[in-house]
Amino acid sequence: MKTKVAIAIAAALMSASCAMTEAPSAAPQTTPPAVLATAENSQAIAGQELTLKQIMSDQDWVARSPTNAYWMLDGSGVLYQQKREGSQISDWFHQPLDKEAHQVPLEKLHNYAYNDGVYNADKSMLAYTFEGNIFVRDLSNNETRQLTRDEARQSQLVFLTSGELAYRQGNDFFSVNPRTGLTKQIAALALRKAPTANSEPKDFVAREQQQLIEFVQVERKNKADRFAQQQQLQANNASLAPEPFYLGEGKQIVATSLSTAGDKLIVAISAPQKWREDGDIMPNYVTEDGRVAAEPVRSRVADAKPVEHEILVLDLESGEQTTLTYNTLPGWNEDVLAEVHRENYAAEGKTYKSEKKPRPITLMQDWGWQAGAIRWTDDGKQVALMLEAWDNKDRWIASVDFAGKRLVSQDRLHDNAWINYTHNEFGFLPNSSTLWFQSEADGYSHLYVKPLNGKTKQLTQGKFVVEDPTISSNGEFIYFSANKPHPGNYEIYRVRTDNAALEQLTKLGGINNYELSPQEDRLLVKHSTALQPEELYVQVIGSDTATRLTHTATEQFMSFDWVAPEIVPVPSSHVADPIYTRVYYPQDYDPNRAEKYPAVVFIHGAGYLQNAHAGWSGYQREFMFHTFLTQQGYVVLDLDYRGSKGYGRDWRTAIYRQMGTPEVEDLVDVVKWAGENTNVDTNRMGTYGGSYGGFLTFMALFKEPGLFKAGSALRPVSDWAHYNTGYTSNILNLPDDDPIAYRRSSPIYFTEGLEDALLINSPMVDDNVFFQDSVRLVQRLIEHEKEDFETAIFPVEPHGFRQPSSWLDEYRRIFKLFEENLK
Predict the structure, then answer these.
(1) Fewest 10 Å CB contacts: which of 248, 374, 607, 621?
(2) Using an 8 Å Cβ cutoff, are 548 and 531 in contact?
(3) Are strands 67-71 and 434-439 parallel, antiparallel or unpaired?
């Protein structure tokens, strides 16, 4: 076998161990209750045969890893959730840094629910919500006070510069003095027209009636007098609640954001949006009452219509209401789809004439956001909005000129393909009017800063991706994780905002996410490797070592001899960058064996997801299945095809308007590499994958017959016009604008190419990829008189399977498919 240019994850684990320590000897091992098997059980299961039933069983036997972990306010420990054994319920645990973990009693949970809380200006108070009610922690004496206790749900907490705490309840905004509890309404939003004393006569009869009948005239005058008096009282008596802002009929509120100064409110409204139509239903055949239930499901991208948000500035002091227009944004009226339209028009024998016209624009929707698309400075005097074009080709960061009543563009990011729906964090540095933001402007997600009246400065650069930025309290640093050492290894860094000096904080190997401690002296690291599910570690900033806090992987899981995959940069025949691929070898692998090995290629789902990395895979059953396959004599490969996450903008957008083309090209390259470098018989290769992986299984078998002798498509997309709008319209535009892209990218148009064995596994109550996708594609195969395909249905399963019996049935079928066709 040729020398492999690879990162052996096993070696990475060995080197990483030098940077980790167990809990200090002064403290007991911090193991939550009921997470480790007993020593007797461990001995009993050592050397146990790995079976599909074991792999596909309830995953409590693997690990009940800590989730949603965050710091105690004083930095003395951490809080996290852990799934209860044998249940879907999770419990909260408190893990001190120097003691054993203990469960947080239900009656005390409200004291610890401050992870998403907000501080006042001097950080002497912290406000947060628990089960929809407001709590305030006085950090000077560590006392917690409950401010609301009702069925209403309070949200959008913000400390005002006055010291009061503001919040939203429904469409009303209130402020409360956190010490006295005095509450007052500061704004109300009404989705109706402003009231008038009398309505105008609607027709001839009404006009004549008001002219002829004196009684009607008197009644109208009395109503007008009462209305005028009430208006005067409202204007002159400060004890009354403020008059609502009337936003008009036929509107819905999309987002709101109150300034910390408490004097302005930004509101985004739109025409009412439906997430489904009456006909968007899915039959559920297995119900409690034995009847067929018509479950509501989302609409399809083929039914989508453009949406625009109207941005309003509401002055809470004067009552003035201002609508901001988009015509100050560069490119607001460009015909960015001109080339797409020309190609599609030409295909129909038509000529497209380009013209400039306003583009529908909305607030940015980022899949990973919590804070939203409107961010204020600490003093509440400046605000920035992140906006996106409905056609997905532009993203703007714009401030608001309140005096000039207009948007001021601070940054425009244009992409001829589509703007990424992640990596869009932004805001103002603390006590500053300097923006910080993420951008793919140079091809990778990096950090930038820009004073509102100054020039943009790039803080990070290189062929790596910045994730999860956190700003230090003084604005001196931005902390983040990044795959700088290697595309599959994410470590924690910080960069100075003044001179862009970069500092690596961890060297743990694998995948590392983090939470910065409130004192900003330590990191809570959520660390995993290919063979270890995520556990919690603490590392002092400036230290070279991390101390492990949790041990949740079971002895039973650890007793199995799992195969550590290698990460191999497979050369691409189409682009300069390699196709990073996890390769699993049998333990007795012989590169010179006379009989070549059969092989299986796993295709991850989601499209924009990274799986060929050095951390614990989100596909944990599949990871274990791959070890099982190696025990049966297979080599397994798991690639990050073009379109995957973690490799920059060009890799991400390679699939624009041609989903299934570059990815299949990458599959061809991986198969070729395996044949030349791993003693694999390329005539005995199979493939499988779910969701997007199921889609690519279809495309590989339909467009490259013979590449794989057998393939299994799980919960597969067969026609992108039937998928959702938020995901699909980014990559393929809208079907009405770009039918060529949909026909080029949907497997249902290529079914005639099937020559190899195909197994379709479809859950019937899948509200993500509809069961109809498989039904329609099967009908096409029948009409083409194809023979070598089978369909397995799963009547009670959604997109993500829940029942171990369903997992087992599915993977028994997949394994049987490979055994019958590849051995």
Answers:
(1) 248
(2) no
(3) unpaired
